[in-house]
Design brief:
The structure is a homotetramer. Chain A is of the alpha+beta class. Chain A has a single domain (about 5-135), classed as Roll (Thiol Ester Dehydrase, Chain A), CATH 3.10.129.10. The first copy, chain A, has 3 helices and 6 strands. Chain A has helices at about 25-40, 45-50, 130-135, and strands at about 5-10, 55-65, 75-85, 90-95, 105-115, 120-125. In chain A, strands 1, 2, 3, 4, 5 and 6 form a 6-stranded antiparallel beta sheet that branches. In chain A, a hairpin with a 4-residue loop joins strand 5 and strand 6. The mean pLDDT of chain A is about 95. Chains in contact: A-B, A-C, A-D, B-C, B-D, C-D. At the A-B interface, helix 1 and strand 2 of A face helix 1 and strand 2 of B.
Chain lengths: ~140, ~140, ~140, ~140
C-alpha cells in the first residue's frame, strides 16, 4: 500500500479571526501530502513542468471534526484507497497536537484525482503498475 | 428560499503552474458566497466579532467539472438546501466565463455548517425562524 | 495619469487569530488593483496566457498603518508613479471602512514591475506609449 | 546574533499561471521564518493566544531577484538586524534549489515588527534583554 505522511506547524496565515485554523487551510496541508503520495507512485512534482502530466483533483470530501490552533503540529497521513482506469482515490487523516497535548483527530478527507496531459488538457489512463501497488 | 450570488475575476494568485485555477481557490469563492448567504439569514459577518457567534464548516463536498482560467469571471450561486437542529446545508454552483465566451459550469459544492459560540466553542441551535425561511 | 480603484469586503480567510487582516492578505488586494491598472495600460490579464507577456513584481514596499477587520470594506487606489526603460513603479493607498465608520488609511505600498516574456523569461522594454500616459 | 532557518518545498498552490512561484507566496515563507525567529527570542507562537502578545508587521520590503519553481526547495535565513524601543527589524535571505541544481538567491526582504497587546491593540516596549541578544 502506498502511503505518505507530512507534518507542519500551523502558521499565522492559516488561522482566522475565529481563533482557529481556517477550513481552507486544511486543503493546503492535504495538497502537500497528496504531492508526496504521487511522488511515491513515481510521479514527483519536480518532473511535472517538463512532462506536462499533472494530477488534477476532480472531487474533494472533507469532514472537520475538531478545531486546530496556531502553532499546533498538523500531521497528515495519506493513502491510495482505489484506482480505476482514469482515477485514483486518496484518503487523508489529519491530526493536530498542541505543545503539551496528544495528537487529536481534526479532519478526514478523500480526493479523487485524474491525470491530465497539458497543455491540451487531455485525460490520461492511470499507469497499469499503479493497480498492483494498491493491492 | 434564501439565495446569494457573488462574482469575481480570477486573479493571478488563484491560478497555479498547470495554467488553471487551483482547486483550493474555489473554496475561497465559496466562502464569500456563504458569508453573503448567512448575511441574508440575519447573521452578517460584521456582527460576528462582537457576538462571538460564528458559522463553522463541518463538511465540504466539491466536484470539479472543468478548468477555470486567469481573468475568467467566476459566478457562485449559493442556496440553503436543508436545516436541522444544529446544522445548515448549503449548495453552490460555480460557473466561469472568459471574455468572449458563455458561462460554463466549473464546479458544484455542498457545505454543512454549524453555529459555534466563541470563545467557548459551544455548538448553538439553529434559530427557529431559519426553518421557515427554507420552506 | 493612469489610475485604478478596487473594492472588496474582508473575508474570513484574510483574517488571522490576532483578530485582524493578515499582513499577507493586503498583497492580494494590491495584486487585484495592479492587474486593473495594467488593463488600463492596454495589457489586460485576459490576453496574457496567449501573449505570454506578464508583469513581474521585482520589488514591494508596504507600510501597515492600522488594523483592518472582518467585513471591513477595503478600497485600493493604484497609480503609476514612474516608468523607465524596463520598469514601471506603482503606488497603492489602502483604506478600510467598517459598517458604521469612515474610511481610514490602513496601508500604503509601492511595487516595481518588469515585463517578462514567457516561456523564456526574457525582460521586455516598456512600451514607448506608456511614458506619455504617465506624464 | 539571533538567527533562524526554515526550509520547504514549493507546493502547487504557491505557483501561478506564469509557471513560477507567486510574489505573494514568498511572504508566507518569510512568516514561518519570522515566527521561528521570535520563538528563539522567547516568544513562541504557542504562547501567543494565551498571552495576547503578538508581533505585528508594520513594514515589509522585498526584492525579487529570480524565479523559483514548483518543487524547488526554498530556504529562508532570518536575522534580527536592529532593535529599538518599540520595533524589531528582521532581514531575510531566500534561496531556491531545484533537484539537480545549486541553491540560487531568489529574494531578499526586511520586515519591521512591533509588539502588540491584544485585545486592546496597545503597542508594547521591546524587552530589554533583546537589545543584548542582538549585539
Amino acid at each position: 500500500m502506498i502511503e505518505a505522511e507530512t507534518s507542519e506547524t500551523v502558521p499565522f496565515y492559516d488561522t482566522d479571526c475565529g481563533g482557529v485554523v481556517s477550513n481552507i487551510a486544511y486543503l493546503r496541508y492535504i495538497e502537500k501530502a497528496r504531492t508526496l503520495l504521487f511522488a511515491g507512485l513515481g510521479m514527483p512534482a519536480s518532473d511535472m513542468m517538463e512532462s506536462g502530466l499533472f494530477p488534477a483533483v476532480v472531487r474533494t470530501e472533507i469532514d472537520y471534526r475538531a478545531a486546530a490552533r496556531l502553532a499546533d503540529e498538523i500531521r497528515v497521513t495519506a493513502r491510495i484507497t482505489a484506482v480505476d482506469k482514469v482515477r485514483v482515490t486518496c484518503s487523508f487523516e489529519l491530526t493536530a497536537r498542541s505543545e503539551e497535548g496528544e495528537p487529536r483527530p481534526v479532519a478526514s478527507a478523500l480526493q479523487v484525482v485524474a491525470l491530465v496531459q497539458l497543455p491540451e488538457g487531455r485525460p490520461r489512463r492511470i499507469p497499469a503498475e499503479w493497480f498492483k501497488l494498491i493491492e
